[in-house]
Design brief:
The structure holds two protein chains of two kinds. By secondary structure, chain A is of the alpha+beta class. Helix content of chain A is about 30%, strand content about 15%. Chain A has eight helices and five strands, in the order ααααααββαβαββ. Chain A has a five-stranded antiparallel sheet. Chain B is globular. Chain B starts with 14 loop residues before the first helix and ends in a 12-residue tail after the last helix. In chain B, about 55% of the residues are buried. The longest helix of chain B is centred in the first third of the chain and has 18 residues. Chain B has two domains: about 35 residues; about 160 residues, Alpha-Beta Complex (Nitrile Hydratase, Chain A). Chain B is built from eleven helices and four strands. Chains A and B meet through helix 1, helix 2, helix 3, helix 4 and helix 5 of A and helix 1, helix 2, helix 7, helix 8 and helix 9 of B.
């Protein structure tokens, strides 16, 4: 979706301001919201692309007006509500008002290290055909505007770049986010000259790369 | 996104005080429903507050500086090279290391969300997740470096890696001059978090703790 999350190249946000000696979390609720999000992935059964879409799919003024962990909280609430794991009146009440929906498994204290160490690798080894592009190939990022989740940033769309690396055969977020399955695709690092993206005002030596799945690209 | 982080969460009636209450209510609800175990939440938090952080990445960088064979393995295929130090897993399943040289400076961003190599750097700082960084890094990275207080030499090429997939990038900064013969452990003290994102440089030998 062309949402406020897709920020590359937007002007007007001001300088980057780093905080000295920054803590990992800035409030107790941020800790809990972060951990609830990670823990609920197990009983919830959603995937990372569904999580990302649940965060980004909101009005720009909401996305830009919320803090980072407020967005995470809103995202995990939405995923739980959509699946009937909780109801909104229960959040307000802070206690169950409806029968609990059975879940296959939950995260136990002993399971935390294992879950985090395993992570969620996205590379698959079942490619039915070889990669279409090779390092050095010239490609154009397609002009697409799906209303659903995509990882092709707007600033790259329509622009010409060069395939730099073939990264393997990876789960395709555009399908995975909508529940259509992993639908893995070849993934490439594609490098663009700054001038191609930003015109003559660009820093002359700038190169910017994205990681782009094959369906995002066409041969130039 | 807003900088609400710096408001006072405890201020009554503030949006963050409301968020604080909402998260407490949500956790109680999820615990009563049998969906989360508070001890598991504690273990998740403890992992990222005390176990996983930029010290991990600093060890990787120091080893690459000290051991040319390790450096070669890291640049060729970072995931197994980093796993040699037992750093692996969530948000670092597929790692790539990119090397700074006197002619090239690398910078890592995620313009679409906040992708960051957790096993080696921990959770990202607020500025990395903020709109100013995510918007500016791909368009005016030299300006970003100025925001961080340093000017890249004019002749140095700048290369930005937008983490749009599940590949996570770690910058291998240039080893500071004057560190010949330093042990790996001593080199670790020079490696800053920002130098591994590309928004900073390693400490100079006289700045080391």
């Amino acid at each position: 979706m062309d949402g406020a999350h897709d920020m590359g190249g937007t002007d007007g946000f001001g300088p980057v301001v780093a905080e000295f000696d920054e803590p990992v979390f800035h409030a107790a609720w941020e800790r809990r919201a972060f951990a609830i999000t990670l823990a609920m992935g197990m009983p919830g059964g959603w995937n990372i692309d569904m999580s990302r879409f649940a965060r980004e799919d909101r009005p720009p003024e909401d996305y830009l007006g919320m803090s980072y962990y407020q967005i995470w909280l809103a995202g995990v609430e939405r995923l739980m509500l959509e699946r009937g794991l909780i109801a909104s009146d229960e959040i307000d009440a802070g206690k169950p008002l409806h029968p609990a929906k059975p879940v296959a498994k939950t995260l136990t204290p002993d399971g935390v290290a294992k879950m985090l160490h395993r992570g969620g690798p996205t590379e698959r080894n079942n490619a039915p055909s070889p990669a279409l592009f090779a390092p050095g190939d010239r490609v154009r990022a397609k002009v697409i505007h799906p209303p659903t989740h995509t990882r092709l940033p707007q600033y790259a769309r329509g622009h010409y770049g060069t395939v730099e690396r073939v990264l393997g055969f990876h789960v395709f977020p555009d399908s995975n986010a909508t529940g259509e399955g992993e639908n893995p695709q070849w993934l490439y690092t594609v490098t663009f000259d700054g001038g191609e993206l930003w015109g003559q005002a660009s820093e002359p030596s700038l190169k910017v790369s994205i990681d782009a799945w094959e369906p995002y690209l066409e041969r130039a | 996104m807003s900088d609400h982080h710096h408001d006072h969460a405890s201020e009554p009636g503030s949006p963050l005080a409301e968020t604080d209450l909402r998260v407490r209510a949500l956790e109680s609800l999820l615990v009563e429903k049998g969906l989360v175990d508070p001890a598991a939440l504690d273990a998740v938090i403890d992992t990222y507050e005390t176990k996983v952080g930029p010290r991990n990445g600093a060890r990787v960088v120091a080893r690459a500086w000290a051991d040319p064979d390790y450096r070669a393995r890291l640049l060729k295929d970072a995931t197994p090279a980093i796993a040699e130090l037992d750093y692996a897993g969530r948000q670092g399943e597929h790692l790539v290391a990119v090397e700074n040289t006197p002619a090239l400076h690398n910078m890592v961003v995620c313009t679409l969300c906040s992708c960051y190599p957790w096993p080696v750097l921990g959770l990202p700082p607020v500025w990395y997740k903020s709109a100013p960084y995510r918007s500016k890094a791909v368009k005016d990275p030299r300006g970003v470096l100025r925001d961080f207080g340093f000017e890249l030499p004019e002749g140095t090429q700048i290369r930005v890696w937008d983490s749009t997939a599940e590949i996570r990038y770690l910058v291998l900064p240039l080893r500071p001059a004057g560190t010949e013969g330093w042990s790996e452990e001593r080199l670790v003290s020079l490696v800053t978090r920002d130098s591994m994102i590309g928004t900073g440089l390693p400490k100079q030998p006289h700045e080391a703790a």
